[in-house]
Amino acid sequence: MSIWTVSYDLRSPGRNYEALYKALRSVPFAHILESVWLIEAVGPASRIRDELSKTLDANDGLIVVEIPPNADWAVRSINAASAEWLKSKRP
Predict the structure, then answer these.
(1) How far is CA 17 from the centre of its chain?
(2) Tens digits of per-residue pLDDT, 18-52?
């Protein structure tokens, strides 16, 4: 499986986005920033986008980007568990 960055802009105030969060939690994940998650899933990116889009409103934004093996990355001020998760997946 691949590691994917999933980031979104939820533009409908007051809407319940629990279905989105449930979908993201259904696979191995790290919730690294408020609207940025790392997930381990089978791609391609368009399939993940389409599945997650079912939980969003039409005006919400979403991007899905693969983090390939040997990717260079750095973090700042994220929780330790998320940093460790990423380090274990992409040392």
Answers:
(1) 14
(2) 999 999 999 999 999 999 999 999 999 999 999 99
6 torsion bin: left (phi>0), alpha (psi -120 to 50), beta (else): beta
Q: Sketch the domain layout of the chain as residue ranges.
A: 2-89
Q: How far apart are CA 80 and CA 65, in angstroms?
A: 22
Structure tokens at 62: 């979403």
Query: How far is residue 76's CA from residue 91's CA, in Å, rounded to a whole number?
Result: 16
CATH architecture of 2-89: 2-Layer Sandwich (3.30)
Q: Look at residue 14 and tell me whether its pLDDT is greater than 80.
A: no
